[in-house]
UniProtKB/TrEMBL annotation:
<protein>
    <recommendedName>
        <fullName>Glycosyltransferase</fullName>
        <ecNumber>2.4.1.-</ecNumber>
    </recommendedName>
</protein>
<comment type="similarity">
    <text>Belongs to the UDP-glycosyltransferase family.</text>
</comment>
<keyword id="KW-0328">Glycosyltransferase</keyword>
<keyword id="KW-0808">Transferase</keyword>
<dbReference type="InterPro" id="IPR050481">
    <property type="entry name" value="UDP-glycosyltransf_plant"/>
</dbReference>
<dbReference type="Pfam" id="PF00201">
    <property type="entry name" value="UDPGT"/>
</dbReference>
<dbReference type="InterPro" id="IPR035595">
    <property type="entry name" value="UDP_glycos_trans_CS"/>
</dbReference>
<dbReference type="InterPro" id="IPR002213">
    <property type="entry name" value="UDP_glucos_trans"/>
</dbReference>
<dbReference type="GO" id="GO:0035251">
    <property type="term" value="F:UDP-glucosyltransferase activity"/>
</dbReference>
Length: 464
């Protein structure tokens, strides 16, 4: 049966649901919320977007400001956090600390919601905030949905992890066999989870435990890429009693922040000749590794567009490219390579006809953006959930993953020779190009009104 539709604007029966969205810290969490906000608003919902200032990175501030300016129909709701002392925690990760600061302000949400008009009819809360906010939202009588910002494979790990911890026979973490899915090897488990006292571990386990209590879990993925994990989750194999896991991706990028545009340079390059290299918004690379990567790109013989990032938080990026890579290098590669530091419009790059491959850390938004444009990935996961996502990329035919390249907590440096060879392989593999293109077509079909993700979105709205 098709989902009920919201009557069109002007219809007297129309009562648009008013959905409040609560994103968490970091571009990886903010970007899918911005996209969901626009998708819901385009479908006739009234949308309030909860904002928290100051943000950890300046990219987040710019992104929120651009969203609200471009879509004035989205209502900003300014959420003032309770006082928070980060020095009380052993963690130094600014994003995990901000998760905690937001989590500890959950009791302030009812006052914020009480001031909204028309009243809010449901909330969508970021996964990293789930265990603190879900009881508060349901306590005021509202439905609470979660948005999981990474892969369905990662959601399976999140859902199963509390049971894994409860049943393990030895201390520490080993390979984790996810019921109904596959075994995540120890090496692919996010490093903080090795330590039971890590702040992220506490949050991750508490959030995993509360999933069953949500009204639904929205996820930015699609069936052609992650059928196995979505089926395992929805058939109760991973954990019994989960609410519906609704795939609605790849959520369409809506706009970018201001930033240097690589378009004029890309416009001058032949079709599918450029490899785009980026490790996302919060994964820094050591100078030694950067130099090997630079040399690897040079050896590959391919044209490249490389976004260099040397600090976790963009506000701390002070050193110039010349100092990081050397003027000689930049001079040598300038005919074939564009090296930039700072924000680029990734979406316009991945959509550009000159781009034929993507060396990516496999942050989930990057993966979904590559999928949407059918751009094959050479996966170089560096931390967190990225190896789990890289497994999805490799299994789904979207890319290749060379296991064993340097990872969080390791001193080793991937060699220029190896990198160069793999980049060339990425750009020359016709079979991979075809399978990524096929997946791109499936992604476009999925988000159409009658596609699996389009229907997922409509069914979610229909329930409100
Ligand atoms: N992004 C961008 N320009 C940049 C760096 C990142 O547009 O210079 C966007 C990217 O397109 C994605 C998001 O920021 O939408 C990063 O999220 P992802 O999950 O890929 O990785 P994270 O930054 O969370 O590690
Ligand atoms: N995540 C989770 N539970 C949490 C916090 C995060 O399952 O309590 C997931 C999140 O969706 C992502 C992964 O854990 O898949 C790593 O989170 P982080 O914020 O480090 O990643 P980012 O998206 O910023 O790259």
């Amino acid at each position: 049966m098709p989902p009920p539709e919201i009557p069109p604007s002007g219809d007297p029966r129309r009562v648009a649901p008013h959905i409040a969205l609560l994103p968490s810290a970091g571009m990886g969490h903010l970007a899918p919320f911005c996209r969901l906000a626009v998708a819901l608003s385009d479908s006739g919902c009234d949308v309030s977007f909860i904002t928290i200032q100051p943000t950890v990175s300046s990219a987040e501030s710019r992104h929120v400001a651009t969203l609200l300016a471009a879509f004035p129909r989205l209502r900003p709701l300014d959420f003032r956090l309770a006082d928070f002392d980060p020095s009380a925690f052993a963690s130094t990760d600014p994003f995990f600390l901000r998760f905690e600061a937001i989590r500890r302000s959950a009791h302030l949400l009812p006052t914020l919601l009480a001031a909204t008009s028309p009243p809010v009819s449901a909330l969508v809360v970021d996964i990293s905030l789930a265990s603190e906010f879900l009881p508060v939202v349901t306590g005021v009588g509202l439905p609470c949905y979660l948005l999981f910002t990474a892969s369905a494979a990662m959601l399976s790990l999140c859902a199963h992890f509390p049971a894994y911890i409860a049943n393990r026979t030895t201390a520490g973490v080993g390979d984790v066999d996810i019921p109904g899915l596959w075994t995540v090897p120890k090496a692919s488990i996010p490093l903080p989870l090795y330590d039971p006292n890590n702040l992220f571990t506490t949050q991750f386990v508490e959030n995993g435990r509360i999933l069953q209590k949500a009204d639904g879990i929205l996820i930015n993925t699609f069936y052609a890429l992650e059928q196995e994990a979505l089926d395992a989750l929805n058939r109760g194999k991973v954990v019994p009693g989960l609410p519906p896991v609704v795939a609605m991706g790849p959520l369409k990028p809506v706009m970018g922040c201001e930033g240097g545009s690589a378009l004029p340079w890309l416009d001058a390059q032949p079709a599918r000749s450029v490899v785009y290299v980026s490790f996302g918004s919060r994964t820094a690379m050591s100078v030694d590794q950067m130099k090997e990567l630079g040399s690897g790109l040079e050896r590959s013989g391919c044209r490249f567009l490389w976004v260099v990032k040397s600090k976790v938080v963009d506000r701390e990026e002070e050193v110039e490219l010349e100092e990081l890579l050397g003027e000689e290098y930049l001079e040598r590669v300038k005919e074939r390579g564009l090296v930039v530091k700072g924000w680029v419009e990734q979406e316009e790059i991945l959509r550009h006809r000159a781009v034929g491959g993507f060396v990516s850390h496999c942050g989930w938004n990057s993966v979904t953006e590559a999928a949407l444009h059918g751009v094959p990935i050479l996966a170089w996961p560096r931390m967190g959930d990225q190896r789990v996502n890289a497994e999805v990329v490799a299994r789904g035919g979207l890319g290749i993953w060379v296991k064993g390249w340097s990872w969080e907590g390791e001193e080793k440096v991937g060699s220029a020779e190896d990198i160069g060879e793999r980049v060339r392989e990425l750009m020359e593999d016709e079979g991979l190009r075809a399978s990524a293109a096929r997946l791109g077509m499936e992604a476009v079909k999925a988000v159409a009104v009658d596609g699996s993700s389009g229907q997922g979105l409509a069914q979610f709205i229909g329930k409100l």
